[in-house]
Amino acid sequence: MARGFCFIFVVSSVLLMLLDCCYGSFVGICYGRNADDLPPPDKVSQLVQDHKIKYVRIYDSNIQVLKSFANTGVELMIGIPNLDLLPFSQFQTNADTWLRNSILPYYPATKITYITVGAEVTESPENISALVVPAMTNVLAALKKAGLHKKIKVSSTHSLGVLSRSFPPSAGAFNSKHAHFLKPLLEFLAENQSPFMIDLYPYYAYRDSPTKVSLDYALFESSSEVIDPNTGLLYTNMFDAQIDAIYFALTALNFRTIKVMVTETGWPSKGSPKETAATPDNAQTYNTNLIRHVINETGTPAKPGEELDIYIFSLFNENRKPGLESERNWGIVYPDLTNVYSLDFTGRGPVDMTADANATSPTSNGTKWCIASSNATQLDLQNAINWACGTSGNVDCTAIQPSQPCFEPDNLVSHASYAFNSYYQQNGASDVACSFGGTGVLVDKDPTYDNCIYMKTGNNQTLASNNTTATSISSPPSSSSKEVYTSISTSALLLIFLLFLLDIGQA
């Protein structure tokens, strides 16, 4: 038995180290309900699962919403609204009662991983910031009584207005007028290993200062770099610059261990006449590039490779919100469950396959593929698809039709990439066969993803796996390596148990 115990201890230690390295960034969605005619929560839950979204932020603890996500595997971040900060901060019994009545009856069937206490309190006209930490402390105490304080983290969300300066990023600093509130808050987060939650909107920076901020820089599309004069770090997008400003502000106060989490970010698809950048194309571009940026574990210039979890705002347009037109048009889905624009939450597929992004691949063995340039116009891509899939190109484009394995992500770059490559491979894999009026580019990284198989040189057949029906297609891998974590954990623990039994038998 002693030998078996030692074996399990050693293997378990190695396993824990392995699992720790498998944790990665994730992309979630904000599910606000300040709107008329929204679908019932059970349909929303199914919609979320259909989009392969594993993480959802809600702004209260609505019972019907909590029930709808039971046994789905979706992890919820739930909120305690600003209106409830006073009673939660005054009496521990209020926090205890809320947890007992609003959370415990649905947990753990409904996976809850974060509780946000208050939202952007520094933006509130009422002086409520002093209530946040006492309320957080009482919520944490309630969780400790239930034995859940290590499974559910407590924090609070903030706007970028919590900083007095955000550029250059290295000069990032918290506003001194919030010092009385921030110091105990940061101490709470550090002690309990909770993230600093921030809501970031490059859209507003561009809208309010279009002469100072480039639209491409805000959309992750910039080909130029902004240099931080203090550090020499190069920034190609505003999102990274804002994240690093937060990290530098935390470091300035000696809170180096606190992680940053983005609890809201996005781009509106419609705005008032002066909000010319609020378009579906810009919204799709920002969110697509953001997802790819996060899933690729790029990190930021100051924190390369650093895990960064984000929540895109938002799932639905919310027509009851006040303010400019854009405030009511941040959703990716209409109330009738049709898309405002297409968005691939897995971060997979040939969505951004420029020649530079796919210049080298150690496994290509000289094979090349032809894909669509992400810089091509939508009109040029559509015309090229029509030509390739028509009688002129004679490409079998069945695989990019609805319910087929190459339909998702549903956008022209992805569909054109599949059509371009099929034509290219069927016509001798010559440079001329990948021109498409300048919209095609050659790469030597295989664009194949999930069940969408791209032809290789000399393979002129339409692969069987690209002609399967929707019911035979397996679900795409999750965008988060947390699923990998669970899979490895279950399999490895089973292996350890079997080896333990074998060791006992041999003893």
User: Might you state the CATH topology name of the largest domain?
Assistant: TIM Barrel
* Number of individual domains: 2
By secondary-structure content and strand pairing, the structural class works out as alpha/beta
- Biggest sheet, spatial arrangement of strands: 1-2-3-4-5-8-11-12
Q: Span between N and C termini?
A: 7 Å
Strand/helix succession = HEHEHEHHEHEEEHEHHEEHEHEEHHEH
Overall mean pLDDT stands at 83
Based on CA atoms alone, the radius of gyration comes out at 25 Å
Largest sheet: 8 strands, parallel, barrel
Overall number of strands: 14
In the predicted model, the low-confidence regions spanning at least 5 consecutive residues are 1-22, 349-363, 459-465, 467-491
Estimated share of beta-strand residues: 5-15%
CATH homologous superfamily identity of the largest domain: Glycosidases
The CATH class of the largest domain is identified as Alpha Beta
Count of helical segments?
14
Shape: globular
Kindly state the percentage of residues in helix.
25-40%
* Annotated CATH architecture of the largest domain: Alpha-Beta Barrel
Keywords: Disulfide bond, Glycoprotein, Glycosidase, GPI-anchor, Hydrolase, Lipoprotein, Membrane, Plant defense, Signal
Catalytic activity: Hydrolysis of (1->3)-beta-D-glucosidic linkages in (1->3)-beta-D-glucans
Family: Belongs to the glycosyl hydrolase 17 family.
Main location: membrane
Give the gist of this structure.
Helix content is 35%, strand content 12%.
Record the SSE blueprint.
Blueprint: H1 2-21, E1 27-30, H2 41-50, E2 55-57, H3 63-68, E3 75-80, H4 85-90, H5 92-103, E4 111-119, H6 132-145, E5 153-159, E6 163-165, E7 173-174, H7 179-192, E8 196-199, H8 202-208, H9 215-218, E9 226-227, E10 234-235, H10 238-252, E11 260-265, H11 280-295, E12 310-312, E13 369-372, H12 378-389, H13 412-426, E14 440-443, H14 482-506
Parallel strand pairs: 1-2, 1-12, 2-3, 3-4, 4-5, 5-8, 8-11, 11-12
Antiparallel strand pairs: 6-7, 9-10, 13-14
